[in-house]
Design brief:
Length: 254
């Protein structure tokens, strides 16, 4: 049994066959999914999925790329949704210095506000980090994010960065890029992360694993990530599934 801890099944890329994609995930042994709502458009569609399917949970937050448009009432909205029984985390939140859509100071302010909210609500956070390793770690430390912990989503940093995140009560999540033939650094990091701190995800419809690289990703493909972890750690796929499922349930309180 597997849990896809980060997916976007409400994406328009699934409009033609969403029900079939969800059925394929279940057939592949994915018995729980966490769908991520990250802005004004995707939070309602994420909540709708979580309310429609008993095995789909929600994380809600404001993505750093969209932080320039976040209003005070949006933070209040997220706060109110944290009381919903299917909402298990605040995210994805963080910093993205790759896309030049929101100024860094605005991203950092919105990130801090949501960490503070998570601490008020006692909820884990799901971290988006692109080309901003140093600042992400610094802000997590300055805001005492270790009090709630959470997930470093689709981790792409070094082992040194991973160690700092582990010390702050975060799980390290691996997705499709781990399976790429040229993924030397993620594989090295995985080999050093304690098994009880590993999560798996797809980030569907993005970042499809090998051999589907470049195509639409879907939650059933999380098994390919588990297969790669099995090869690297020497654990059976069944053991990887059991370990990562237990980790996810502990992290998200489900």
């Amino acid at each position: 049994m597997l849990i896809d801890t980060h997916t976007h099944l409400d994406s328009h890329k699934f409009d033609e066959d969403r029900a079939e994609v969800i059925e394929r995930a279940q057939a592949a042994g994915v018995h729980k999914l966490i769908n991520i709502g990250f802005n004004r458009e995707t939070i309602p569609t994420t909540m709708a999925l979580a309310e429609q399917y008993s095995f789909i949970y929600a994380a809600v937050g404001w993505h750093p790329v969209d932080s320039i448009g976040m209003r005070p009432e949006d933070l209040d909205w997220i706060a109110s949704l944290c009381d919903h029984p299917k909402v298990v985390a605040i995210g994805e939140i963080g910093l993205d210095y790759h896309w030049d859509t929101s100024p860094k100071d605005v991203q950092q302010r919105v990130f801090r506000e949501q960490i503070q909210l998570a601490k008020q609500k006692r909820m884990p956070i799901v971290i988006h980090n692109r080309d901003a390793h140093e600042d992400v770690v610094r802000l997590l430390r300055e805001e005492d994010a270790k009090d709630v912990g959470g997930v470093m989503h689709c981790f792409s940093g070094s082992w040194e960065t991973a160690k700092q995140c582990l010390d702050m009560n975060f799980y390290i999540s691996f997705g499709g890029p781990l399976t790429f033939t040229n993924a030397r650094v993620p594989k090295e990091v995985l080999s050093q992360v304690p098994l009880d701190r590993i999560l798996i995800e797809t980030d569907a419809p993005y970042l499809a694993p090998h051999p589907h690289r470049g195509k639409r990703n879907e939650s059933s493909f999380v098994r390919l990530v588990a297969n790669t972890i099995s090869e690297i750690t020497g654990k059976s796929v069944e053991e990887v599934g059991k370990i990562t499922t237990e980790n996810a349930m502990k992290c998200f309180g489900i």
